[in-house]
C-alpha cells in the first residue's frame, strides 16, 4: 500500500514495460472492435480509414522525439515530464524554449504543472567539451524569488539529459552569472546533477557528517502517479552509496512533503550490494513484497521503479537485479518473471503521450 510519508494509498499506472526499456506510464489501451454490418463497401472504407489513421500516427511519431522537460508541479517540485517535441537539430536550445511560460509548451503542458522560465525569455546554447553555456535574454530576470532554485535545477537537469552535456554555465545578455539576478542565489562555476534537485535537509542534519543522495519518491495529481527526484542527506559514514540510497527509500519522504512511498519500513538488505560491469544485485528480506502477494513472489512495480530510477542516478549503475533471501524467483504485477536485469527507461513520466 502506497504511503504518504508513511500513510496514504494511490494507484500507479507504471507497468512491466519498464523491463523492455519503455518509459514509465507509457501504456497501450486495449481496443474493442464492434462487428460492422455485412456490407462490403462499408468494411472496405473502414479498413482504409484505419490504415490512414495508422499512417498518420506513424508519420507524427517519425517527426517527433521524446524529451525530458523539468517542470514545476502543484507542490513546487521540479519534475521530469517526457513530452514529444518536433525533431530539431538544436535539441538542447529547443528543450529550454519549451520551459518558457507562454511558449510552445502551452498546448502540451500536463495537468498540475507549470513552466519554469519567465514569459518571452529567449535563449541560446553553446556546447563545448561537455559544458553547455546558456545565454538568457533580459526577460530571464522576471521570475519570483521563490522559483530561483527551481530554475537552476530545471535548466541543469533538462540539459544534462543529453549525453554531450555534463555541466552547465549561465549567462544573461552575454555576461556570465555568478549569482541569480533576483534573490542572489550563488551559481557554481559548473552546474551539474551533483548539485541536487528538490533538496530536502532535515533541520537537525549535520552537513559535515552527511552527504547528498538523490532518491525517487511518488506524487499524485488528477488520478495520475509520477516519480519525483529528491536530494536528501545520508550519513557520511555509510561507505556504500547504494545502501545509503536504499536506506533513504525505505525511510520514506517527510510527512509534510506531499510525497508518497510504497516501501514497507521493515525492508532491509540481507547483504552488501554487489556491482559488476555496471550491474548491481540487491538481496532483500521478504518485507520488500510489502502489500503485494508474498506467496506468489510479486514485487510492486512502484517499488521496483523507485529502486531502478534511484540507483541508475549513480554513475556506476546501469541496471538492477532483485533477489529475496538469496533467490531470484520474483515476478512483477503482470505476472512476468524478473529474469533479466532492469535498466532505466529512456523516458520517465510519459503521462498520456
Structure characterization notes:
InterPro entries: GerMN. It holds the Pfam family Germane. This is Spore germination protein GerM. The protein has helices at residues 40-62, 91-97, 148-159, 241-251, 301-311; strands at 3-4, 64-73, 78-86, 113-114, 123-128, 131-136, 167-172, 175-176, 210-221, 224-235, 260-261, 274-276, 279-284, 319-324, 342-343. The protein is α+β, with helices and mostly antiparallel strands. The radius of gyration is 22 Å and the shape is globular.
Spell out the key features of this protein.
alpha+beta; 2 domains; four-stranded mixed sheet; GerMN; Spore germination protein GerM
Detail the topology: elements first, then pairings.
Elements: E1 3-4, H1 40-62, E2 64-73, E3 78-86, H2 91-97, E4 113-114, E5 123-128, E6 131-136, H3 148-159, E7 167-172, E8 175-176, E9 210-221, E10 224-235, H4 241-251, E11 260-261, E12 274-276, E13 279-284, H5 301-311, E14 319-324, E15 342-343
Parallel strand pairs: 6-7, 13-14
Antiparallel strand pairs: 1-11, 2-3, 2-4, 5-6, 7-8, 9-10, 12-13, 14-15
